[in-house]
Each structure stands twice: as C-alpha cells, then as structure tokens.
Design a protein that fits this description.
6-stranded mixed sheet; 13 strands; D-Maltodextrin-Binding Protein, domain 2; 5-stranded mixed sheet; 14 helices; 344 residues
Length: 344
C-alpha cells in the first residue's frame, strides 16, 4: 500500500494517522511508554491505545511487552522507517503551508488621498511582521465591498465621526497667501505655517455690499473628492449648505484631481480635504467648524479571512497616521488605534 492509499484509508476511518504514528515512533525512540507519553504531552493510557490501534490495523505486534523494558519487535523495526517517512512528509507539508501563509499578499483598502510615504511605512512594517501588504486606493463603497467578498483583508471604512474610532478633521484648501503677492510658499522656504481659525460654510457667502457680478458665482465654489461621496456625508453637506444660505450648486464633485488642485492653487475655488493632503500640495488649509462634516473611520477585517480575523495594533496605528486621524472624542484611556484594532 503506497503513501497516498495509507493516508486515504486512515482518513476514511476517522482516525488521526499522524498522532498514532507519533506515538509509535516516540515509544521506539524512548524505549518506554511513559517517557514517550511525557514527550508528546499526552496520558500514557492514550498512547497505549494509539499503539494498539496501529497493531490492530497492521495485524501484528509492534512491541514486545513481555520484557521489563519496551522492546521493538521485528515487525516494528521493519515499519519504523516508513512511519518516520510519513511524519517527515507531514512536517514538510506544514512548513510549506506556513510559508505560503506568510508569503500571501494581503490587500489593504485605503482612501485615495493618503500620502505615499505613510503607505510605504505600512508596507515596510508588514514585511517586518512577516506579511506582504498590497495597498489599494479605493472609494468608500468599493472598500466595503472588498471586505464583503474578501478581496481585501483589511480596509478603512467610513462611518459617522461621532461614532468612529478615529476622526479626521476636514477643512477647506485654498491658494497659499504668498501666491497672491508672488512670493514663494512657506513650505518651500522651510518655515512652518500657522494654522488658520476654523471656518464655516457661511463664510463662503459674498461680503455684504459686494454682490454677485455677471459671470461670477455668488459664493466661492467648493469641490468634494470621491472619499466624501458616501451617502451620509453628502446628505450632511447638503443640509449644511442649506443652513448656511448658500446655493446648492456651491458644493459639487471634483473632476480629475490634478485639475481640481490646479484651480485651488490658482485661487478659483476651494477644495474640501484633510490638512495633510492640502499641505502636501502646497495649499493653505483651514478646518471646518462643523465637526459633523468631518470624516470618521473604523479599520475592519474581512470576516471570511481567518488569518486576518483581528486587526494588528501596529497596522491600526500606521493606517490612522496615513489618513491624518486623531482619536475620537470620548476615548479616554484608550487611543484610536487601540479601538480600531479591538473593533476589527
């Protein structure tokens, strides 16, 4: 009977062949049932039963129990190299499976406005922890769908900021003040920029007495990126625009991001985005005073992926930094990454 037939037979019998062979080989090596049981971490009666099961299957004695010391019979000596071969193959199989798990690429869904350097830190940290990450920039709905079908191992999911583990302040990016005077931006000169006071959507209305000129919008247009096109976020923004007395057309989706940034830096419009995104592209930025319009995130794992069932704390911390998040209010005693990992 060849190796494959032996494995199939024992599997069909509902018996753990490897455990029985381990008991047999350990008893040979130790020349003692008690020491063999201790080596395997099982009770001696269980080890004896496993050896008897093998003897019943092979229809012969593997050990001579008539002597004071356990002695291997001629049949036991004959079968020993084959038993060792089966155990060696099983060990190699486990090793290959473990290597395959460690080398498997795990996709991580993130917003499209994360900084490349921050995402590089995620990839490097994964390598250090024995995991290969592939970072995928996806819209909010596609990140949730990727978790559902397990094409993503982890993803940052948009949730209302008041119930989020992490909150990312949003604000309005505009042309740097230096651009109007022809000077170079503060970031280019290496000097830190002062953070402007919080702005409200009402501030976008034309100043009293200026009025709207023909061909000129009544309010400064605000463009939104795909990351803020989640239904609940769009609904909140529409209501805020109405409360501010602004035309509904004041806020509209951005087209190609390069064009939107160019118009923002030229002073023709403002862009709703995070501070890190604005600073990275040389724009001025002021936070929105309405915290309900900020972003909320939770880091979740695909439920179908048993290897990614729980989010590692180090991954949660790095992704929180990548989106420019800060701990949500009311998380005293537990930082945002910890809550993200726990909820994952």
């Amino acid at each position: 009977m060849n190796f494959e037939c032996v494995i199939t037979y024992w599997y069909d019998c509902g018996v753990d062949l490897l455990a029985h062979l381990e008991a047999y080989v350990a008893a040979v090596d130790e020349a003692s049932f008690s020491r063999a049981a201790e080596r395997l971490g099982i009770a001696q009666p269980l080890l004896s039963r496993r050896i008897k099961t093998l003897e019943a299957h092979f229809e012969g004695q593997l050990f001579d129990r008539s002597r004071r010391q356990v002695a291997t019979t001629e049949m036991g000596v004959l079968l020993l190299p084959y038993a060792r071969d089966v155990l060696d193959r099983a060990q190699r199989l486990r090793h290959v499976a473990r290597s395959a798990r460690q080398s498997a690429v795990r996709a991580v869904g993130v917003p499209a406005d994360c900084g490349p350097a921050a995402l590089a830190r995620v990839i490097r940290a994964g390598t250090e922890h024995g995991t290969t990450f592939a970072v995928r920039e996806l819209p909010p709905d596609e990140r949730e769908a990727g978790l559902a079908d397990a094409s993503l191992a982890y993803a940052l999911v948009r949730v209302p900021p008041e119930s989020a583990a992490l909150r990312v302040p949003l604000g309005l990016a505009s042309a740097p003040a230096e651009a109007a005077g022809g000077g170079r931006p503060e970031s280019a000169a290496g000097r830190p920029r002062a953070r402007r006071r919080a702005v409200h959507l009402e501030d976008l209305r034309p100043r009293r007495g200026t009025g709207a000129r023909p061909g000129r919008p009544a309010a400064v247009p605000v463009l939104t990126t795909v990351e803020d096109h989640a239904p609940y976020a769009q609904d909140r923004l529409r209501r805020a625009v109405a409360r501010a007395g602004l035309p509904e057309s004041t806020v509209r989706p951005a087209g190609p991001m390069a064009s939107a940034l160019a118009e923002t830096l030229a002073g023709q419009l403002t862009l709703l985005c995070t501070e890190t995104f604005a600073r990275r592209h040389g724009a001025s930025w002021a936070p929105l005073g309405d915290a309900a319009l900020h972003r909320g995130y939770e880091l979740r794992a695909a439920r179908r992926d048993p290897e990614a069932a729980r989010v590692p704390h180090w991954l949660a911390a790095l992704l929180a930094a990548a989106v420019g998040a800060e701990p949500a209010a009311g998380s005293a005693g537990e930082d945002g990454p910890s809550r993200l990992a726990a909820r994952g």
